[in-house]
From TrEMBL:
NCBIfam families: 3a0501s007. The gene is secY. PANTHER family: SECY/SEC61-ALPHA FAMILY MEMBER. GO terms for biological process: intracellular protein transmembrane transport; protein targeting; protein transport by the Sec complex. GO terms for cellular component: plasma membrane. It holds the Pfam family SecY. This is Protein translocase subunit SecY. It comes from Nonlabens marinus S1-08. Belongs to the SecY/SEC61-alpha family. Component of the Sec protein translocase complex. Heterotrimer consisting of SecY, SecE and SecG subunits. The heterotrimers can form oligomers, although 1 heterotrimer is thought to be able to translocate proteins. Interacts with the ribosome. Interacts with SecDF, and other proteins may be involved. Interacts with SecA. The chain crosses the membrane at residues 20-41, 80-100, 120-142, 154-173, 185-203, 215-240, 271-292, 312-330, 371-393, 399-418. Coiled coil: none annotated. InterPro entries: SecY, SecY/SEC61-alpha, SecY_CS, SecY_dom_sf. It is a multi-pass membrane protein. The central subunit of the protein translocation channel SecYEG. Consists of two halves formed by TMs 1-5 and 6-10. These two domains form a lateral gate at the front which open onto the bilayer between TMs 2 and 7, and are clamped together by SecE at the back. The channel is closed by both a pore ring composed of hydrophobic SecY resides and a short helix (helix 2A) on the extracellular side of the membrane which forms a plug. The plug probably moves laterally to allow the channel to open. The ring and the pore may move independently.
Amino acid sequence: MKVIETIKNIWKIEELKDRIIMTFSLLLVYRFGAQVVLPFIDSTQLAGFASNFEGGGIGSILNAFTGGAFANASVFALGIMPYISASIVVQLMGIAVPYLQKLQKEGESGRRKINQITRWLTIGICLIQAPSYLLSLGTLGVPPEAYLIDNQTLILVVGTIILVTGCVFAMWLGEKITDKGIGNGISLLIMVGIIATLPQAFAQEFVSRIDGVGGPFVMIIEVVIWLLVILACIMLVMAVRKIPVQYARRTASGGYEKNVFGSRQFLPLKLNASGVMPIIFAQALMFVPQALGTLDSDWAVSVATAFSDIFGFWYNLVFALLIIVFTYFYTAITVPTNKMADDLKRNGGFIPGIRPGTETSEYLDRIMSQITLPGSIFLALVAIVPAFVSLMGVTQSWALFYGGTSMLIMVGVAIDTMQQINSYLLNRHYDGLIKTGKNRKAVA
């Protein structure tokens, strides 16, 4: 079989084999750490605490991103999310802070400095989130008898140190996977955390269908719909608009020949250039209405109640609109059409029928605006698919895997990792994962 042959080819490449083994080893360490409970908590008393994160809600989303570590009161309870938050903040600050803009233009040395700033900001965010998490354990359902020590100050100090260390260690694991393994380490940690809760959610849905309404036939329909959503997400991630680009032919002296056409290439503009970031931004803002519930006002309480159900109408309507808005915003700040036009002009390239320079920049900006509209709508629909499937009687924990950030992260990371493995195979004259066929022969 071609799959077995491809696996054998992967194993023949010593460097690729070592990188894959390293990746799985570090991911295993991360998953092991997600099961290690904080030292001052009795793990046998956490059943009620963990049950609060089942069946939907903001807590279930946080728990899914940490692979269950949030509900386990684990040393990795904060997961890698503080690092993601810090990365987003640094990226947005790069638009307005001249120092960060300067670092972005300094190449590898600038990138290392930005990474160092991101790490320190991650620690700062952890120092805020860790005490908040520890103080909320009681209100979230951890019984008093679960605490092995009766000193809240000691719990806060020790717990904060452990949680911050756990996040920094997880960040280190992600960076090591990127350097020594295969794929983007931080993204893989998030994906593995999401996938870790998938078997349990699927088992709960399967049992509910077998013992309840629908039976195996409805379960098969649900799986088919899930696969179709995955296919739609793959199309969203991979879809590009190809802009034809013509390059003038260089002369022997290094100049350009006038009126002589050179190679014709394409400039790919992604339909969803912003990735999952609009969903993450929108998700963060959706915490605000729920925070209004703490105010002493009937109006605030009613708003908080309406937005407390992540499968409710108002929550998903506002969520979808925010995603569309943030898609335009994030695309505008991350797709440098001016720089793309300057690079084309500098390299002797031009879009047929469009003058180089400002006119090219305006043309690219107009095209990006046109393709961002359907891309943003498609992204919003993918994000609210769980609300629709929950109307079919699907358990809420299983419904979360039908769309949203979880689905897009899993699809995006899987495609990125496969492309990296594919490049190793093609460089060694083997067929890649994406295309099948016989081994490629080396060119003499």
